[in-house]
User: Fold this.
Amino acid sequence: MNKNKHIRFDWAIKRLLRQKANFDVLEGFLSELLKFDVKIQEIIESEGNKEDENDKFNRVDLLAKDENNDLILIEVQNEREHDYFHRMNYAQAKLITQHIAAGDNYEKIKKIFSINIVYFKLGQGDDYVYVGKTQFRGLHQNDILQLSEKQKKLYTANEVSDLYANYYIIKTNNFDDVAKDTLDEWIYFFKNSEIRDEFKAKGLREAKEKLRIDNLGGYEKEKYDNYIKEQRIRANEIESAVYDEIQKIESKLLPQIEEAQKLIEKERRQKEEAQKQKKEALAKEYQTRILLAKTMIKFNIPIENIMESTGLNKEEIEKN
Assistant:
């Protein structure tokens, strides 16, 4: 077994990273992504993120609260979901309502970081890390709405966007496996379940030790192996379903494709025949002009007159 091969992140986030002893791993990743040091205060368990042993769909939710009382929602998603953007919006809206008590002032609404690690094609875009923030831009002046100085002190925020959820989408499959910075080192781990010796990102040194596959006990190792097996089966099922659907579409469209190919071939032959006929007609016309020139020469007609009548040049007339 590759000594650098580690537990998949989606499994780790379900089983291991909720433990306080492993907060340093999660803190390292969040610090690299958010570009400031994150200290996790607690992992919040709720009906929305409890593990369901019978759930074979690879949806993973982890809700953490940092030392600033901001909420950090992490979702890892392998299954393709066409309405995933809507789910992101719903999840953060639900968190807001869950974490403000009736009668509280709106200023007590918590800041939310929605972090989404996806393993399928989501939207159109070639990058592998996208950040979304809420800004209000002037319709006429094109300026960005700012907080007043009083609001900055009241909300302990610098920008209006600081009051709203920040969205992060990591499109793992778009990553080219070349780690250009420390965040890329984490994404390399997400994609390959491997932590290379030269990686220096925050939290990866701890992850390299704590998330080794051979650290798993007998029962946990069995559960992990079954989980990996289920994911492979699921991936094969999806691949087979896609293949079957393609086959159905191809069989349905095959007569139309064949008919279109016949029409294309017919048009090609007609075009070739037309070009051939045109070439033959031009050759016949040329020979007619040559014959006319020869006849005019027999009657001692001046060559200038022959050239004018036949459209041939002097060389063509003398040659023939």
User: Anything to note?
Assistant: The mean pLDDT is 84.
